[in-house]
Hints:
Layout: H1 2-18, E1 31-33, H2 41-47, E2 63-66, E3 73-80, H3 86-103, E4 109-114, E5 122-129, E6 132-135, E7 137-138, E8 141-142, H4 149-157, H5 171-187, H6 195-208, H7 220-234, H8 251-266, H9 278-289, H10 302-311, E9 320-322, H11 329-338, H12 346-356, E10 357-360, H13 364-375, E11 384-385, E12 400-405, H14 418-427, E13 429-440, H15 442-445, H16 449-460, E14 462-468, E15 482-488, E16 499-503, E17 509-512, E18 515-518, H17 524-533, E19 541-544, H18 568-588, H19 590-601, E20 607-608, H20 610-614, H21 628-631, E21 632-636, E22 649-655, E23 664-668, E24 673-674, E25 678-682, E26 691-693, E27 698-699, E28 703-708, H22 714-726, H23 739-742, H24 751-773
Parallel strand pairs: 3-4, 9-10, 9-12, 10-11, 12-13, 14-16, 20-24, 22-27
Antiparallel strand pairs: 1-2, 2-3, 4-5, 5-6, 7-8, 13-15, 14-15, 16-19, 17-18, 21-28, 22-23, 25-26, 25-28
Amino acid sequence: MRVSETRAEGVARELLTIRGWQPQRPPRGNLLWKNEYRSYPHLLEALEGKAKKGKGGDAYPDFLVVTRDTVRPLIVGETKAEDREIERAISEACDPYGNALEEKGYKVLAAGVAGDDTGNIAVQVKKRSLSGWKAVQYRERPIQWIPTPQEAELLLTDARLFELQPRVPSAEVLAQRGDEINRIFRECKIKDEFRPAIIGAFMLALWHSKGQIRTDEGNVLKDINGACEKAFERAGKKEIAGSIRVPEANAKLAGEAVRICHILRLLNITTLTAEHDYLGQLYEIFFRFTGGNTIGQFFTPRHITRFMVDLCGVSKRDVVVDPACGTGGFLISAIQRMAENRPLTHDQINALVRGHLKGFESEPITAALCVANMILRGDGTTGIVNGNCFTHESYPDGTATVAVGNPPFPHKKTDEPVEKFIDRGLEALSTRGRLAMIAPASLLVKTGIKQEWRRKTLKENSLQAVITLPSELFQPYASSTTAIIILECGVPHTAQTKTFFCHIENDGHRLKKNVRIEQPGSQLPSAFGAWQAGTSNPGFCVTTTIPEYQEGAEWAPGAYIEFTDHPDDALKAEGHFLLRSLAAFHAYHAPELAAFREALTKGILTVLPYKSVSGRRAKPLTASRDTIGSLFDIYYGQKALHNKENLHPGPALVVSSKGEDNGCYGFFRFAQLIKPPFVTVPSTGSIGEAFVQKWPCGVTDDCLLLIPREGTDENDLYLAAAVIRLERWRFNYGRKITPERIAHMRVRRDVKLKGWIRERRSPADRFMMRAMEALSYSPGRGRGAKS
């Protein structure tokens, strides 16, 4: 029994960690076990003479959750070995221990934890009211999770609060648990493409059975498959029930299944109802961390799907279709918006889905995972169709009012292009129905077939909005430039039609250790407000008409959003980067640069102005004062370097479209060197990753060169490069940087900003010279050899 009690204490520790408490002793953490109380006199005094019923002398609760600094008790807890002992655990936490602490003036919560890592887990939490200890609830049912630090603070400071909503654990916690399950899958020799179906089966089975799964190796996998089948049958989807199953013959998985079940029980999957979005969020996030991209499905983050249904103004009167619904994220967001501010019963949700939502998914496993996603949110008779949206007989024809989605991007020539899914979405809509879909940036800007598609689309529909999204949105699985396209069906675009263009840099999340975590400053609310009001904000959004729309003009927001001056902080940050990049380049390539300098000194290499090297003339540009076009002549790089395969090692520096190492491609035998200083700007490759060049060099023709005109000093080079780097969001592989597209960008030349650059250039220049002088070149010496 003692072993079991110790394991129960381990469960309590894990539950606390998942909910954001630090499991170490103060001041590093929040957790104290009963053998640790003697170090804290105020706790000993409060608990002195208190014992559990039937025992004499002093006794202490199994654990206390305390503040780190003052060690003030917040939660008093008792653990028991089996889940059926939960009432005893919570009773002892309340009396004597909770009462003892309350009598000493400490406001505390009482928590009971019962069960171990081999079976079910039970949790209860109570708070003292005027009439005694009362359960903390969610929708009139006792919660079965330990409150987070924020929830505990709210409960303890508001005497009237006894109701909590379940919260999904942090992305870091879920990533850690997802990594553990992935490790188990690897050890069990489960291939990547099968992992999403297996984790989906575990989650659905545990929820449907309320945790009543036998955990012995002979029955656990059989029980999981049986519970999954029953869940699909109840949802009226028996035909796809076999699409997500666990392999019953995998003996290794049978042995590890108890640990997977334990992780999911810790996350409260067996006890909550489907009326709250917790289970669905947990399902999607866990699915993402355990191989969600291995079947070709990239989750559209839930805050983006919600943003898109908000843009469409989805209401309970709408009929919503997703032609390629994947795991159902857009339809889930539509349900949530339809049911907003009016809690629905299970039957009401079913009726809403049957009459108003339709999703098509041709891949059976993904369709089954989508159905499971809907079941976990209360939809027992889901509107998901396992079929091809282009051929299935039940696909709506002009009867839907909203079409949403993130069509699969083609990976080979035989894949359907994104625009075909957009067309199919439009075919489902009635006149004035609204479509919102995610598309690659290439669809917005490319010529040829894409341009013809844009022209044809606007003959029959109007472009309402184009909103670019952060390039890291789908990381760590994919990095691509995407945008939301909103079209109004059946209303031809005209010269007077106003289109909203917007560029989102901050969607409220950032990438940290391959996990996108929340961050402040989301621009989504501002974008939504500007879209509704039809307003413009330079550098962020604009509401305007599209010139030459009849010829298939580009739809890229970067072509329409007005340029704006950047704040000092942003320019200084890029200036710092440019100076560090140049200094690092000198330190790393000091031996080659020493040899390069020697070749220049001996006249082995010659340096000429760009015009003399290339014979080209700068393209005439119309540019106002203090713009890149007025301060620089803008050229393309050298045609002689178009084919870099013909280069042979030598002393001369060649700069290319690389986005690192100050653009250095390497050192070669190349004689046509351009006189510095100037700025290089990749027009392909690492588009917009501008660098300042202070050495004579050859420049490949996938770069632009900014050659300073008379009156343009070296500080202007850094400021111009900084501006281009800050504006590189406007460009991509379909919309390359050209002289015309950067000539109008303003360069801030105020005295203070230029002085700031000058002050930091001096030590950087001294460092570069020391790096050069510290090494001398002699044949046969490697990089870093001391002179």
